[in-house]
Design a protein that fits this description.
A hairpin with a 4-residue loop joins strand 12 and strand 13. The protein is built from 13 helices and 19 strands. Helix 3 runs antiparallel to helix 4, helix 5 packs across helix 12 and helix 7 packs across helix 13. By secondary structure, it is of the alpha+beta class.
Length: 423
C-alpha cells in the first residue's frame, strides 16, 4: 500500500508510472488527497475542541472554588456541547479514514523504471537464456505419460480422494519430490538463509499484509468456520513474521527460507495448461524471503536472481529469465523476474519461479519498519522468490532426462535420491 505523503509529493510521477501497469490512477489519487485534506481539517477541529474542553475544565475548578455557580453552570453546558460535537467529529474522522483506506488498497504498487510496457505475458522481456534444449527422439513422452509408465505419480488416485489438481506421488516419484525439497532447502541454507517451518493457514491480517487481500480472495481456499486462509505461498506466513516489528539496522538483511505445500484454487484455468503437473491446486514449493534496507534492495534482488540461476544450472535444466512487463506484473510488485525451464516432452517453456522486489508496499501494510541514523522510523523493503516451485521442475526433469533405459537423475540430486536412474 502506498503512503499518502508519497502520493502527495509524487502525484504526477506515480500516475505516469502506473500507466505502465495499465492503471489510470489520476482520479483515485485526487480522491485520496481530498479525503486526507478533509481528515486533517476534521482532526484539527477536534483537537481545538479538545483543547477548549481542557481549558473549561480548569476554569470550572477555579470558579467552583470561588463560588460562582452561574458561570460554572454556563461552562458545564458548553462542555457538554463540546463533548457531543467531538463525538460527532470522531465518527466523521473514523468514516473518512476508512474511505481513505478503501481507496489506497485499490492502488497498485509503482513499477520500477526498468519495467517494460506491455499488456500480457507475450510482452515480457527475455533478458537471459541459458543451456541447450535437449534433442529427444520422436517417441518422446510428456511427463504425465512418463509418470504413469514408471509409477511416479498417480493422478487418478488424487482425483478419487480429492479432485483434479491433487496428485499422489508414489515410489521413486515421492522420493524424487522429497529429494528436491531437501536439495532446495540445503542450497538456500548454504546461501545464508535461515530455515523455518511456518503454519499452512493464515488469518486476514496476514493475508492483507502481503497483498492477498483484498485482491485475491477468489484464488485462496477459505476455511470459513475459523476465517482462516490456506496459504498460496510460504511468502505469506514468513513475511508476516515481521508484521508490526521495528528492525535493527544491524540485522539487515534478514534472510528466510521455508518449505510448504501451497494451495490455489486456480479458478478459470483449463485446457492444455492444466495437464499433469502444469497447474495444480496443491503443490510443494521452497520459498526465499528477504527483509532489506531500501538502499540495498535492488542489489539484493540481483543476488536472489543469481541464486535461483545457480540451482537451475546445477540441475542441468535449460532456462530463461524474463523481466515482466507492466501488464503481467503483480498488483504488489515493483519489479519481477520470472524463471522458465524448457520442457522437452511438451516442447514449451514452464514458469518455475518468480523473484520480486515489493519495495515498501508490503511493509506499509505490515507496519514493518527500521530506525534510520536520526532515530526516525522508516519502512523496510521486502523481497521474495521461489527457490523453487516443484511441480514443473519435476516435470522438466523427467521429460528432459528420459532415455530408452529410464529417466536419468542429475548428478546434483543423486546424493539425495540415492539412485541415478529411474528404470
Amino acid at each position: 500500500m502506498l503512503q499518502i505523503n508519497f502520493l502527495r509529493d509524487n502525484k504526477q510521477e506515480v500516475i505516469e508510472k502506473l500507466k505502465v501497469k495499465n492503471f489510470d490512477a489520476s482520479s483515485i489519487i485526487d480522491e485520496v488527497i481530498t479525503l486526507d485534506d478533509n481528515r486533517k481539517s476534521t482532526q484539527q477541529e477536534s483537537d481545538e475542541l479538545l483543547s477548549r474542553a481542557n481549558s473549561i475544565a480548569k476554569e470550572i475548578g477555579i470558579l467552583f472554588k470561588e463560588g460562582k455557580g452561574t458561570e460554572t453552570n454556563d461552562l458545564k453546558e458548553e462542555s457538554a456541547q463540546i463533548k457531543e460535537k467531538t463525538k460527532s467529529l470522531q465518527s466523521i474522522l473514523s468514516d473518512t479514514e476508512h474511505q481513505i483506506w478503501e481507496k489506497l488498497v485499490q492502488i497498485p504498487n509503482v513499477p520500477h523504471s526498468s519495467v517494460p510496457n506491455g499488456k500480457s505475458d507475450s510482452d515480457n522481456e527475455t533478458i537471459k537464456e541459458v543451456g541447450e534444449i535437449p534433442q529427444l527422439p520422436d517417441n518422446k513422452k510428456p511427463h504425465w505419460d512418463l509418470c504413469s509408465q514408471y509409477k511416479l505419480i498417480d493422478f487418478e488416485l488424487g482425483n478419487k480422494i480429492t479432485g483434479a489438481g491433487f496428485p499422489v506421488y508414489t515410489n521413486k516419484g515421492a522420493k524424487l519430490q522429497r529429494s528436491l525439497i531437501s536439495y532446495f532447502l540445503d542450497k538456500n541454507i548454504d546461501a545464508g538463509y535461515e530455515e523455518f517451518q511456518p503454519p499452512y493457514m493464515v488469518n486476514e491480517d496476514s493475508a492483507f499484509g502481503t497483498g492477498q487481500l483484498p485482491d485475491k480472495e477468489g484464488q485462496m481456499y477459505h476455511v470459513t468456520a475459523d476465517n482462516l486462509y490456506l496459504i498460496p505461498t510460504a511468502e505469506v506466513p514468513v513475511t508476516n513474521f515481521f508484521r508490526d516489528e521495528i528492525i535493527n539496522k544491524e540485522d539487515f538483511p534478514i534472510k528466510c527460507t521455508a518449505y510448504t505445500p501451497c494451495f490455489r484454487r486456480e479458478a478459470g484455468s483449463y485446457g492444455k495448461d492444466v495437464r499433469g503437473l502444469n497447474r495444480l491446486h496443491q503443490f510443494d514449493k521452497v520459498e526465499i524471503v528477504q527483509v532489506q534496507h531500501p538502499k540495498d534492495s535492488y542489489e539484493t534482488l540481483d543476488v536472489m536472481v543469481n541464486h535461483v540461476s545457480s540451482i537451475l544450472e546445477e540441475l542441468e535444466l535449460p532456462y530463461r529469465i524474463l523481466r515482466l512487463c507492466g501488464g503481467d506484473l503483480s498488483f504488489t510488485a515493483s519489479l519481477t523476474y520470472d524463471f522458465e525451464v524448457y520442457s522437452a516432452g511438451q516442447d514449451r517453456w514452464l514458469e518455475v519461479s518468480s523473484v520480486s522486489n515489493f519495495e515498501s508496499y508490503q511493509s506499509n501494510r505490515l507496519k514493518l519498519r527500521y530506525k534510520d541514523e536520526n532515530g526516525k522510523t522508516q519502512l523496510c523493503h521486502t523481497l521474495n522468490g521461489s527457490a523453487l516451485a516443484l511441480p514443473r521442475i519435476f516435470a522438466a526433469l523427467v521429460e528432459n532426462n528420459q532415455t530408452d533405459n529410464g529417466i536419468k537423475i542429475p548428478k546434483a540430486l543423486q546424493e539425495y535420491t540415492r539412485f541415478d536412474i529411474i528404470e
